């Protein structure tokens, strides 16, 4: 009897103790279901769970309790947030660190927690629904078993590399052992998201759980419950030895694993991967090489060396300007996914697009995908047919990749109506014109459209260079006119540049931004003017590129100089992609607007090319000749270039000089856009340059580049160029201001 | 002519002014056999023919008194795509009686019957035979699309060289056949998989499902032993024995059933071969008439066919919830409450599907959130529910089940002395059906 009373008293005490701890805990909650501890994670202050300091602290407490409670035999780790397991470490936590050592310590603490998880005497099952990324994935792979839902939101990945970092909590050590070197490198070096079904095939998760539809609770709620039920069964199965922890392997996998165990095979993989990384990053991104280094250290010198390399390299990477730039871009991207103009009065339910060309059809595709009724209008059946085919092909490619079923493809396509007349425009909430870049044609369609659309319908013009106020001049309701500059190919390029005039109403802007965000775009909103922001930055750089060609640098060399600086596409290739005719048109227009500042290269060179039919990629010939997938320098180009030959000035013509001539004109124009108020803030300037024009991401955009490189150093370089070339290199006032006062920065200083 | 007889027993009649009384004269079916057994060498129209002949024998109706014949089927034999016509001709019906075939997955013969009701109500016909047939022992397995394309081009090739070139283009990949799948075209999900997810969504356990399946088999066995399955007509299968009983009724034990591994969702699923309906061969037929016509021909009808509804929902997550949507709707049409119903016959695709539907019907939350209703309709009491077995035990020839349900309701109403019966069924495509049946006055 005494014993019973004592036990009762004791259990009362533990219950009370637990309650007290519960009250103090806000992020981690533990429910004991018989012999299973179900640990539920939910950050009350955010839509997603991150491994913040608070989360780590509470998790450590709870785990210590679990390990200390002999009634608990196994553990299920689950998030009670729909759509998110753990989205990663808290970036702000890393950013708050002031030194390499501090970040290394963070990494080591994470490593320690996960080591304890990995060595847990009580099996821990990670039950994954929604994003399981970065530190979240490292947590999950430290657990003994993983169950994931088949939900489309369930993705596993190590995106650290995209922030210039590496998986710093054991990821570089556990992943290769779990899924093999090639898959682990693929995940860590690309940072791509792995869907649940793929993760199962790779051996990243053990079991999949279906998502559920309506029952006696909402589908989301019940799916999480079901996941928990299955995970509890798995946990008990492990304890009862009914469930094996070793993965089932087929013959092929066994052979592969065996082959991979040879060090010369591993060495071969390292060198292949290193070569590939160097080729792709041009040595400009330190993180991928560090990832390889950590994996190698662990595989060759054992776990202690591996974990040490991981934490030290994590610390080093966090302090690099590359990582800071990439983190800055991440924050910028998040900011540009919000509508700072508020909720529009009317949601766009029917969109009409004029012009079924590349851009028009691309806009149609990203719109129908969001279940918005879309009218695609052109003036010829041939053009319409081509546009509709482009939309079909875009969606069908997704079906081939199995990201949508053929049925989903058809049902998405049912939102598209192709037509040659204006029927149905009376129901349109917005019209986007993507017709030829000619003011007279734009005016013509604007008038035609205004005759048929309802009064509250927005008229958006997709143009790369024409001023929106000039287009709006023909409008009866200029407050409803806005610019929406999409980038080609629309389904791949993330940026949308929205242009507002003095007369554009706030609601019109809000409506355009809302549509862009719905289409999945990163949106910047800029003021009106020739070339707005993006085209205006691109034009002087291309003018300089033409001058460089005239100085005798061939297109391949020009490309390697630009890609060597970090642009994903070389300047010559970019011009070919854009279209030489488009580039010439743009250069001419902006040249008229801005005068000699936009000079440099001889416009006639481009015009001669156009006259000869060298319109770039689309015509098969431009700077390059495109034949059956291959590209080579256009042999007829030499003759044209020679007729516009210019003598290079040796003092400003080294490879590095050429690179800075190109980049400084881009950057100066960007800063001028901020100075003139075309840009509202530097963040949008950086986002626009990186996502729209391919400005080197590791530099973080023109403004971050000035901050890091130093405005004074840039001004100094520009002055040297100015002496030779004149006002094309005259630094703008804002840049001069920053050069004078080194404490002035475009971005808030990060340690 | 005789005046329509409508009695008022304890409950009111569902007769409506201005709406014709339409009656079920009688209904029959072949024994339902597991596919690949005694019927294996037949063709679908053979089964349908047998049901039609059985109906002729049972009712003694003159062959020229039938105005129209309608059949329901799901997996079509391409040679007899209008199986109604082939079966009618073979059964000895006059070649002057038009016949057509309908398809609506597992409610195909319900669709055949309600089409008949519509024709009679519209005054276009007085006596219609409706039925359904399914033959899973042989299904069309096609050449691959590539192979079919080559073969079709071969027809058009004019020269020997062109033909040889086409034949030479055949690769091993061309030879892989295309099998029909019991999967939704729109979602590519098999029905069993969807049923397992549905059971999980409603929190129906494996044990509950096994218990329900055991109940179905036990009740079917009892009904068979007691001779209650009087709609079954014997079938002399050419070259084989006379078949006179359903052969899939196999009451097992909970222990035996618990040993089975899940069939669709592995390893943690709950739907198994033992708690699902199985592939079945079989055919059914009913004779439907206007009440005047039936009485004029001297029949004593078995039941009135009253209100019916079709419903449809999301084919992914609510594929098998048709009965939950259809039941309250048809009751409303008839001005009845669930408690007024004496006999329930629901199609049992899966034990998990039936139990999920029962839970959905008993949930105010589900009624409000998904059906736009103010409250739940309620769950049918099991002591009135599928008392002579169901599709799980008797078998489920997709196209033929609907007529079995209606005939069973009529027979049970008579046997149990009830007045109102309710048929409900789910179907692929996320569709459903329900019908109210009223006993014919004794």
TrEMBL record, chain A:
Subcellular localization(s) per the UniProt record: Mitochondrion inner membrane
Alphabetized GO MF terms: enoyl-CoA hydratase activity; long-chain (3S)-3-hydroxyacyl-CoA dehydrogenase (NAD+) activity; NAD+ binding; transferase activity
Catalytic machinery residues: 497 (for hydroxyacyl-coenzyme a dehydrogenase activity)
UniProt-annotated site: Important for hydroxyacyl-coenzyme A dehydrogenase activity, residues: 485
EC number: 1.1.1.211, 4.2.1.17
Keyword NAD among UniProt keywords: yes
UniProt pathway annotation: Lipid metabolism; fatty acid beta-oxidation
InterPro entries found in the cross-reference section: 3-OHacyl-CoA_DH_CS, 3-OHacyl-CoA_DH_NAD-bd, 3HC_DH_C, 6-PGluconate_DH-like_C_sf, ClpP/crotonase-like_dom_sf, Enoyl-CoA_hyd/isom_CS, Enoyl-CoA_hydra/iso, Fa_ox_alpha_mit
Keyword Hydrolase: no
Site (Important for long-chain enoyl-CoA hydratase activity): 138, 160
Reaction catalysis annotation: (3S)-hydroxyhexadecanoyl-CoA + NAD(+) = 3-oxohexadecanoyl-CoA + NADH + H(+); (3S)-hydroxydecanoyl-CoA + NAD(+) = 3-oxodecanoyl-CoA + NADH + H(+); (3S)-3-hydroxydodecanoyl-CoA = (2E)-dodecenoyl-CoA + H2O; 1'-[1,2-di-(9Z,12Z-octadecadienoyl)-sn-glycero-3-phospho]-3'-[1-(9Z,12Z-octadecadienoyl)-sn-glycero-3-phospho]-glycerol + (9Z)-octadecenoyl-CoA = 1'-[1,2-di-(9Z,12Z-octadecadienoyl)-sn-glycero-3-phospho]-3'-[1-(9Z,12Z-octadecadienoyl)-2-(9Z-octadecenoyl)-sn-glycero-3-phospho]-glycerol + CoA
Domain 3-hydroxyacyl-CoA dehydrogenase C-terminal: start-end pairs: 531-626
Main subcellular localisation: mitochondrion
Pfam family, one: ECH_1
A Gene Ontology biological process term: fatty acid beta-oxidation
Domain 3-hydroxyacyl-CoA dehydrogenase NAD binding: from-to ranges: 351-528
Gene Ontology CC: mitochondrial fatty acid beta-oxidation multienzyme complex; mitochondrial inner membrane
Keywords: Acetylation, Fatty acid metabolism, Lipid metabolism, Lyase, Membrane, Methylation, Mitochondrion, Mitochondrion inner membrane, Multifunctional enzyme, NAD, Oxidoreductase, Phosphoprotein, Transferase, Transit peptide
Family: In the N-terminal section; belongs to the enoyl-CoA hydratase/isomerase family. Belongs to the enoyl-CoA hydratase/isomerase family.
Subunit organization: Heterotetramer of 2 alpha/HADHA and 2 beta/HADHB subunits; forms the mitochondrial trifunctional enzyme. Also purified as higher order heterooligomers including a 4 alpha/HADHA and 4 beta/HADHB heterooligomer which physiological significance remains unclear. The mitochondrial trifunctional enzyme interacts with MTLN.
Full protein name: Trifunctional enzyme subunit alpha, mitochondrial
Organism taxonomic ancestry: Eukaryota, Metazoa, Chordata, Craniata, Vertebrata
Automatic annotation (TrEMBL), chain B:
Catalytic activity: an acyl-CoA + acetyl-CoA = a 3-oxoacyl-CoA + CoA; octanoyl-CoA + acetyl-CoA = 3-oxodecanoyl-CoA + CoA; dodecanoyl-CoA + acetyl-CoA = 3-oxotetradecanoyl-CoA + CoA; tetradecanoyl-CoA + acetyl-CoA = 3-oxohexadecanoyl-CoA + CoA
Cited InterPro entries: Thiolase, Thiolase-like, Thiolase_acyl_enz_int_AS, Thiolase_AS, Thiolase_C, Thiolase_CS, Thiolase_N
Domain named Thiolase C-terminal: residues: 299-438
Record Pfam families: Thiolase_C (PF02803), Thiolase_N (PF00108)
Compartments where found: Endoplasmic reticulum; Mitochondrion inner membrane; Mitochondrion outer membrane
Alphabetic keyword roster: Acetylation, Acyltransferase, Endoplasmic reticulum, Fatty acid metabolism, Lipid metabolism, Membrane, Mitochondrion, Mitochondrion inner membrane, Mitochondrion outer membrane, Transferase, Transit peptide
Catalytic site positions: 106, 396, 426
E.C. no: 2.3.1.155, 2.3.1.16
Source species, domain of life: Eukaryota
One term of GO molecular function: acetyl-CoA C-acyltransferase activity
The keyword Amino-acid biosynthesis is annotated on this UniProt entry: no
PROSITE patterns per UniProt: THIOLASE_1 (PS00098), THIOLASE_2 (PS00737), THIOLASE_3 (PS00099)
Broadest EC class assigned to this enzyme: transferase
Biological-process GO terms, alphabetical: fatty acid beta-oxidation
Family: Belongs to the thiolase-like superfamily. Thiolase family.
Protein function: Mitochondrial trifunctional enzyme catalyzes the last three of the four reactions of the mitochondrial beta-oxidation pathway. The mitochondrial beta-oxidation pathway is the major energy-producing process in tissues and is performed through four consecutive reactions breaking down fatty acids into acetyl-CoA. Among the enzymes involved in this pathway, the trifunctional enzyme exhibits specificity for long-chain fatty acids.
Entry protein name: Trifunctional enzyme subunit beta, mitochondrial
Source organism of the structure: Electrophorus electricus (Electric eel)
Protein's gene: HADHB
């Amino acid at each position: 009897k005494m014993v019973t009373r004592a036990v009762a008293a004791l259990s009362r005490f533990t219950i009370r103790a637990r309650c007290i701890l519960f009250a103090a805990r806000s992020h981690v909650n533990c429910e004991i279901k018989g012999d299973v501890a179900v640990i539920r994670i939910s950050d009350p202050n955010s839509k997603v769970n991150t491994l913040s300091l608070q989360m780590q602290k509470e998790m450590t407490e709870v785990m210590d309790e679990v390990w200390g409670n002999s009634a608990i035999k196994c553990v299920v780790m689950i998030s009670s947030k729909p759509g998110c397991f753990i989205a990663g470490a808290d970036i702000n936590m890393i950013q708050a660190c002031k030194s390499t050592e501090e970040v290394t310590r963070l990494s080591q603490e994470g490593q320690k927690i996960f080591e304890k998880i990995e060595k847990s005497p009580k099996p821990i099952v990670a039950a994954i629904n929604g994003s399981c990324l970065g530190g979240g994935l490292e947590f999950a792979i430290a657990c003994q078993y993983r169950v994931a839902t088949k939900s489309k939101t369930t993705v596993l990945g190590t995106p650290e590399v995209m922030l210039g970092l590496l998986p710093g909590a054991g990821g570089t050590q556990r992943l290769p052992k779990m899924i093999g070197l090639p898959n682990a490198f693929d995940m860590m070096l690309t940072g791509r998201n792995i869907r649940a079904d793929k993760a199962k095939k790779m051996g990243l998760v053990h079991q999949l759980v279906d998502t559920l539809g309506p029952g006696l609770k909402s589908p989301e709620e019940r799916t999480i419950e079901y996941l928990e039920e299955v995970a509890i069964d798995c946990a008990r199965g492990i304890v009862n030895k009914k469930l094996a922890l070793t993965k089932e392997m087929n013959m092929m996998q066994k052979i592969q694993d065996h082959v991979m165990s040879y060090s010369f095979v591993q060495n071969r993989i390292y060198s292949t991967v290193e070569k590939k990384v160097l080729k792709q990053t041009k040595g400009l991104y330190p993180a991928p090489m560090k990832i390889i280094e950590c994996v190698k250290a662990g595989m060759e010198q054992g776990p202690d060396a591996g974990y040490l390399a991981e934490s030290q390299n994590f610390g080093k990477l966090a302090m690099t300007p590359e990582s800071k730039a990439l983190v800055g871009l991440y924050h910028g991207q998040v900011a540009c996914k919000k509508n700072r103009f508020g909720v529009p009065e009317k949601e766009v339910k029917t969109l009409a697009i004029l012009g079924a060309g590349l851009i028009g059809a691309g806009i149609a595709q990203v719109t129908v995908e969001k279940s918005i009724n879309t009218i695609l209008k052109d003036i010829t059946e041939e053009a319409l047919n081509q546009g509709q085919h482009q939309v079909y092909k875009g969606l069908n490619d997704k079906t081939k990749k199995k990201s949508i079923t053929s049925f989903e493809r058809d049902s998405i396509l049912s939102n598209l109506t192709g037509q040659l007349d204006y029927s149905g425009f009376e129901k349109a909430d917005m019209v986007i014109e993507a017709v030829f870049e000619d003011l007279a044609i734009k005016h013509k369609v604007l008038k035609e459209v205004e005759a048929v659309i309802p009064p509250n319908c927005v008229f958006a013009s997709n143009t790369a260079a024409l001023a929106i106020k000039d287009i709006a001049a023909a409008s009866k309701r200029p407050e409803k006119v806005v610019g929406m500059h999409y980038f080609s190919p629309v389904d791949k390029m993330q940026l949308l540049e929205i242009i507002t005039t003095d007369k554009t109403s706030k609601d019109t802007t809000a409506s355009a931004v809302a549509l862009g965000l719905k289409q999945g775009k990163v949106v910047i909103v800029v003021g009106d003017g020739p070339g707005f922001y993006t085209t205006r930055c691109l034009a002087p750089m291309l003018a300089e590129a033409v001058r460089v060609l005239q100085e005798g640098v061939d297109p391949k060399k020009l490309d390697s100089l630009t890609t060597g600086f970090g642009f994903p596409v070389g300047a010559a290739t970019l011009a070919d992609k854009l279209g030489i005719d488009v580039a010439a048109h743009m250069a001419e227009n902006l040249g008229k607007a801005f005068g000699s500042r936009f000079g440099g290269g001889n416009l006639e060179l481009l015009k001669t090319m156009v006259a000869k039919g060298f319109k770039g990629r689309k015509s098969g010939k431009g700077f390059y000749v495109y034949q059956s997938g291959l590209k080579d320098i256009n042999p007829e180009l030499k003759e044209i270039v020679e007729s516009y030959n210019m003598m290079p000035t040796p003092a400003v013509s080294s490879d590095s000089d050429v690179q800075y001539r190109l980049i400084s004109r881009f950057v100066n124009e960007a800063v001028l856009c901020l100075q003139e108020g075309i840009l509202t803030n530097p963040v949008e300037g950086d986002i626009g340059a990186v996502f729209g024009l391919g400005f080197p991401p590791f530099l973080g955009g023109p403004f971050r580049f000035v901050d890091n490189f130093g405005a004074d150093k840039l001004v100094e370089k520009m002055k040297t160029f100015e002496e030779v070339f004149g006002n094309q290199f005259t630094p703008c006032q804002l840049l001069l201001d920053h050069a004078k006062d080194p404490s002035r920065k475009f971005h808030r200083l990060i340690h | 002519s005789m005046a329509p007889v409508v009695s008022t027993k304890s409950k009111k009649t569902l007769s409506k002014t201005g709406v014709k009384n339409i009656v079920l004269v009688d209904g029959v079916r072949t024994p339902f056999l597991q596919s690949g057994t005694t019927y294996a060498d037949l063709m679908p129209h053979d089964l349908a023919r047998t049901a039609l002949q059985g109906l002729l024998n049972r009712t003694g109706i003159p062959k020229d008194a039938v105005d129209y014949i309608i059949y329901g089927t799901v997996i079509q034999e391409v040679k007899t795509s209008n199986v109604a016509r082939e079966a009618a001709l073979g059964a000895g019906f006059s070649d002057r009686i038009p016949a057509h075939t309908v398809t609506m997955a597992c409610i195909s013969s319900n669709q055949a019957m309600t089409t008949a009701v519509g024709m009679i109500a519209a005054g276009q016909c007085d006596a219609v035979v409706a039925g359904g047939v399914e033959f899973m022992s042989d299904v069309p397995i096609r050449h691959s699309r590539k192979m079919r394309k080559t073969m079709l081009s071969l027809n058009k090739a004019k020269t020997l060289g062109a033909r040889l070139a086409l034949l030479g283009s055949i690769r091993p990949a061309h030879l892989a056949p295309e099998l029909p799948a019991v999967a939704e075209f729109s979602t590519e999900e098999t029905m069993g998989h969807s049923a397992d997810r549905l059971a999980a969504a409603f929190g129906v356990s494996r044990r509950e499902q096994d218990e329900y399946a055991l109940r179905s088999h036990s009740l079917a066995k009892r009904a068979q032993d007691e001779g209650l399955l009087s709609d079954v007509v014997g079938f002399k299968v050419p070259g084989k024995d006379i078949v006179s009983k359903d052969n899939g009724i196999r009451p097992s034990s909970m222990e035996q059933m618990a040993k089975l591994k899940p069939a669709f969702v592995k390893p943690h699923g709950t739907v198994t071969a033992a708690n699902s309906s199985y592939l079945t061969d079989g055919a059914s037929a009913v004779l439907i008439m206007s009440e005047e016509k039936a009485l004029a021909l001297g029949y004593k009808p078995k039941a009135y066919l009253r209100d019916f509804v079709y419903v449809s929902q999301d084919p992914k997550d609510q594929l098998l919830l048709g009965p939950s949507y259809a039941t309250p709707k048809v009751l409303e049409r008839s001005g009845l409450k669930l408690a007024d119903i004496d006999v329930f016959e629901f199609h049992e695709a899966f034990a998990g599907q039936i139990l999920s539907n029962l839970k959905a019907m008993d949930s105010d939350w589900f009624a409000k959130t998904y059906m736009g209703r103010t409250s739940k309709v309620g769950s049918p009491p099991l002591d009135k529910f599928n008392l002579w077995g169901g599709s799980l035990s008797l078998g489920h020839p997709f196209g033929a089940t609907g007529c079995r349900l209606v005939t069973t309701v009529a027979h049970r109403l008579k046997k149990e002395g009830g007045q109102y019966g309710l048929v409900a069924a789910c179907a692929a495509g996320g569709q459903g059906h329900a019908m109210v049946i009223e006993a014919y006055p004794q």
